[in-house]
Amino acid sequence: MCFPFNGELESVSHAYFNVYTLTVTETTMSRKLQQLELPQDLLENRETCSVSLHLMTALRLQLKYLQQSSFARIENNAFESQQTLESILEQLLRAWTPNLRSRTQVANQGTLKRALDYIHYHQRTPIRIADLCEHLNVSERTLQYMFKRHFQKSPKQYLNLRRLHGARKSILKSPHRPISAIASEWGFAHHGQFAADYRKLFDETPRKTARN
C-alpha cells in the first residue's frame, strides 16, 4: 500500500504476530518502478496485496537480517543492508503488480478517452493541465504517464499539436482570413510563439500556407 507523506496507518495484530513496517521514500519507489518498467501511477495506489507463503517466508528472513543489522549497528554491512532493502522492495512490487496492472490499464484507457474527449471539445479555449486533472479526478503524474505511454508526448504537447493542426486546416480553408485571428481562435495567445511552433512542425510559415 502507498500512502502520502505524513499519512497514518493503524492496525491491530494478534498477540503472537511479528509486524514489520518497511518505509521507503517516494524517490526510491519511483526509481524502482522505472527499473522494473512499471507505471509510475502505482505510487498513488491504495490497495494491499497478499503474497505466497514461500515469498512471505523469504521476506521474513530478509527483514530479520535488516533488523539484526540495525540493532548491531554494523557499519560495514550498510551497503549489504541497502541491497537487501532493494531486493525486498523489488519482490514486493513484482508480487503486487500482476493483478493491479490489468485493472490499472483498463482504468487508464477509460481515463485517457475522457481526457481526449475533453481536449477535443475545449481545444479552442485555454485549457490548464490542473483543470484537466480536476475534471478527470487524477493527479498530474498519472496524466503525464498516460500521455507519455500512448503518444510519447506530454498532455500540453499533445494539446498544442492538436491546435496547430486545427489552425492549419483553418488557414487552408480560409486563406484570406488574418493569421492572427485564426491563431487566437485556436487558443494561441502569443502569435509569435504560434508562428515559431507552426514553422517548426510544418516547415513553413502560416503565411506561406495561406499563399499555397
Can you summarize this structure?
By secondary structure, the chain is mostly helical.
Q: Care to describe what's here?
A:
The structure is a single chain. By secondary structure, the chain is an all-alpha fold. Helices cover 66% and strands 0% of the residues. The N and C termini lie far apart (58 Å). The model has no long low-confidence stretch (mean pLDDT 78).
Query: What about the largest sheet?
Result: none
Summing up helix and strand content along with how strands pair, one would put the structural category as: mainly alpha
Q: So how many helices?
A: 9
Low-confidence regions? none
pLDDT averaged residue by residue:
78
Secondary structure elements and their pairing?
Blueprint: H1 26-35, H2 53-72, H3 78-122, H4 129-136, H5 140-151, H6 155-173, H7 179-185, H8 191-202, H9 206-211
Helix pairs in contact: 2-3
Provide key terms for this protein:
212 residues, Arc Repressor Mutant, subunit A, 2 domains
